[in-house]
Amino acid sequence: MGLNEEIADNWVIYVNWMRCGMREADDALNESNRRLIKAYQKEHPNAKGYKLWKGIIDIPEQVYNFGIDMIFEGTPEIINEINNESDEFKRLKIFEKYGAIGIVWS
Predict the structure, then answer these.
(1) 102 pairs with which residues across the strands?
(2) Whole-structure pTM value
(3) CA 5 – CA 49 distance, rounded (Å)
(4) Cβ neighbours of residue 55 closer than 8 Å, sequence gap 6 or more
(5) 6-20: buried (b, 16+ CB within 10 Å) or exposed (e) per residue?
(6) Taxonomically, which superkingdom (predicted)?
(7) Which of 18-22, 39-43, 67-71 has the highest mean pLDDT?
């Protein structure tokens, strides 16, 4: 599946997870997130991850639960803009501006 198909599939699984009470350890949602991340990396080889408590990270080979909160195209321009902003809410606006994808783990 391509990136757009993975995004659509992930959205359906995410909404279903919410409708079912957002329970812990939803394997379908977590596996869908992993597929989405891999599809994003395939389309954007320089992709980076972002953890709210840690900052910008390389995406590990195996992304487990709570691995990353955002995935984005890791160009120097975007990385510099994120690193130069200390306010998390303003960072979220930067991610939005560049089309980052938020990842919600169960």
Answers:
(1) 70
(2) 0.80
(3) 20
(4) 83
(5) beeebeebbeebeee
(6) Bacteria
(7) 39-43
Residue 32 has φ and ψ, to the nearest 5°, of -60, -40
Half-sphere exposure of 15 (CA within 13 A, CB side): 5
Q: How far is it, in rounded angstroms, from Cα 79 to Cα 26?
A: 32
Q: What is the pLDDT of residues 12-38, one digit of tens each?
A: 887 888 777 777 767 888 888 888 888
Tokens of 82: 């994120």
- Reference 103, options 54, 31, 45; nearest CA is 31
Q: Which candidate, 1, 82, 75, 57, places its Cα nearest to that of 34? A: 1
Q: What is the dihedral of CA 54, 57, 61, 62, to 10 degrees?
A: 20
